[in-house]
Task: inverse folding
């Protein structure tokens, strides 16, 4: 084992023995104790019946229990809507400060603000939106008094799908800005010049050159946004107190007390969520790797 | 002429998107601030006074800050030697360690706390026997403190690891280490006197992100029954109107402070998700 190892990728690694691996042992022990064991426990428990035998029933029931199917549907819808909405707005914002011709100073303001907003979530965010477009909110009053629009009269409700989406957007589009700004920076000036020299219009340049290069990055970022909304718990709980049954809320209810009357089903629900999150992270990494060929 | 040229090239759409984005950012904050001042027109700061008079506020807020400091300390202790060792001696471990640091994106806070509770609410026994080594961590205060700091360390890991690793990329770790070793420095001295000072801006940005995640975190704190600031603010919101608005605005300022500092020390970008 003491000789230099060459991996299939051709990288040359320094010689190692088991003692070298001891250096990273604390990290692995920590990860096993507080990340793998807890996840593994949920995983095995979701394949176990109340008597402790192996079963697939919990997983099968995930797809038949209306309460659970509805929760997943709602979570997927809300994540998709806010990923799309946040993605589009975030992209346009990133565009405006990178290649859109706005003054340079606005860019650093926007990036800092995005850093703050993508971290501003949970209870304070929920309260901020109640103060803004709650029934007695600041904007609710302004829209009613100055624009003659009574949004609550028109059927809007902050504690609904639309309301929760609006709140999620607050941390969704800034994340898009943070991911897309560097990608848009990667568009080379030469590509645009070359396109123009060949007689392409602005629209043609965007459709035929810029978009194909950016598309994997945009899709990847939107998938990340999807996962970001899918895993959100605190914001939804603080805003609705559990009245909107997204998956995280239902899992929370299951932890507090066995509302499904079958602990195994609760574990299966958690694992189902991990699977969706894993798929979205894998999709993001794959698309990100595709983009890096062009945008470096 | 020049004016007309400018007008033709005025980036109308860019400005429009920017203004829409700016309004989205600012309006909720403005509304919260306005609402927090509207309790008593005679004493505009009444909500802030009342909020800060509450002993529970100080207790939970200080407690959350202590948890944040403990998490930062523990994360640095765990991540810095690991990242250092991987750069210096064990590049083969890079992929697996990077993969592990990304795991918190796949296992969100609510799932993590679910698993932690299920594992650590039963007593520790010697495997295959009934001999108890320790009572369940969730049963005593120090135990829940350990659990929550461990949980926060997991949540902060992607950001801490990435910050530290990026910081180490910019300084030549191997040369620094060799130079220190040839002068007779011990590993402890190398890490504390050479490596840490050289990556201090990366450390600071990782620490501030961790701070932003931990102070105000609700999910882990409420399920583990820890009296932290997040659950306090949530409960306050159940039966009060103005104080929660005031404290929400204050926590926004805190996040702003943390992110502004990161911007200053790195000139780059800090971001976190998963704390929602």
Result:
């Amino acid at each position: 084992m003491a000789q230099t190892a060459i991996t299939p990728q051709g990288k040359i690694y320094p010689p190692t023995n088991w003692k070298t691996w001891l250096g990273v042992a604390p990290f692995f022990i920590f990860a096993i104790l507080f990340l793998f064991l807890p996840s593994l426990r949920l995983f095995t428990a979701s394949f176990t019946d109340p008597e402790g035998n192996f079963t697939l029933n919990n997983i099968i029931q995930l797809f038949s229990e209306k309460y659970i199917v509805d929760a997943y549907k709602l979570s997927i819808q809300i994540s998709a809507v806010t990923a799309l909405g946040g993605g589009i707005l975030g992209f346009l914002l990133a565009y405006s400060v990178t290649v859109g011709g706005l003054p340079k100073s606005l860019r650093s303001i926007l990036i800092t603000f995005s850093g703050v907003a993508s971290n501003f979530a949970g209870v304070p965010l929920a309260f901020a939106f109640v103060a803004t477009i709650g029934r007695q909110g600041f904007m609710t009053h302004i829209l009613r008094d100055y624009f003659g629009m009574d949004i609550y009269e028109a059927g809007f409700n902050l504690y609904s799908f639309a309301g929760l989406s609006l709140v999620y957007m607050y941390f969704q589009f800034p994340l898009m800005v943070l991911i897309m700004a560097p990608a848009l920076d990667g568009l080379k000036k030469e590509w645009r010049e070359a396109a123009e020299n060949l007689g392409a219009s602005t629209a043609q340049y965007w459709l035929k050159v810029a978009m194909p290069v950016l598309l994997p990055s945009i899709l990847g970022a939107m998938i990340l946004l999807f996962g970001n909304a899918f895993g959100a718990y605190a914001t939804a709980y603080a805003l609705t107190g559990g009245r909107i049954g997204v998956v995280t809320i239902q899992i929370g209810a299951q932890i507090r007390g066995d509302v499904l009357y079958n602990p195994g089903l609760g574990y299966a629900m958690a694992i189902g969520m991990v699977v969706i999150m894993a798929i979205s992270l894998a999709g993001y990494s794959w698309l990100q790797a595709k983009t890096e060929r062009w945008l470096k | 002429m020049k004016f007309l040229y400018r007008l033709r090239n005025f980036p109308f759409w860019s400005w429009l998107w920017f203004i829409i984005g700016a309004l989205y950012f600012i309006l909720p904050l403005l509304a919260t601030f306005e609402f927090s001042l509207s309790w008593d027109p005679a004493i505009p700061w009444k909500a802030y006074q009342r909020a800060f008079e509450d002993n529970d506020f100080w207790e939970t807020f200080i407690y959350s800050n202590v948890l944040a400091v403990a998490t930062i300390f523990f994360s640095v202790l765990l991540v810095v030697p690991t990242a250092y060792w991987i750069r210096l001696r064990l590049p083969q471990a890079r992929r697996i360690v990077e993969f592990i640091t990304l795991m918190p994106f796949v296992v969100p806070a609510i799932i993590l706390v679910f698993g932690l509770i299920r594992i650590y609410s039963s007593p520790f026994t010697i495997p295959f026997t009934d001999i108890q080594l320790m009572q369940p961590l969730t049963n005593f205060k120090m135990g829940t403190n350990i659990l929550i700091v461990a949980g926060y360390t997991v949540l902060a890991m992607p950001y801490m690891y990435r910050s530290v690793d990026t910081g180490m990329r910019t300084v030549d770790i191997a040369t620094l280490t060799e130079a220190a070793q040839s002068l007779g420095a011990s590993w402890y001295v190398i890490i504390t006197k050479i490596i840490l000072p050289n990556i201090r801006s990366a450390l600071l940005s990782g620490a501030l992100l961790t701070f932003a995640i931990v102070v105000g975190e609700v999910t882990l704190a409420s399920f583990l029954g820890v009296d932290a600031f997040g659950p306090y603010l949530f409960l306050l919101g159940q039966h009060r109107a103005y104080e929660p608005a005031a404290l929400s605005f204050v926590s926004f300022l805190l996040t702003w402070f943390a992110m502004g500092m990161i911007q200053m020390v790195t000139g780059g970008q800090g971001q976190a998700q998963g704390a929602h």
Notes: Confidence is low (pLDDT under 50) at residues 269-275 of chain B. Chain B touches chain A through 89 residues (CB under 8 Å). The domain at 55-265 of chain B is CATH 1.10.3720.10 (MetI-like fold).
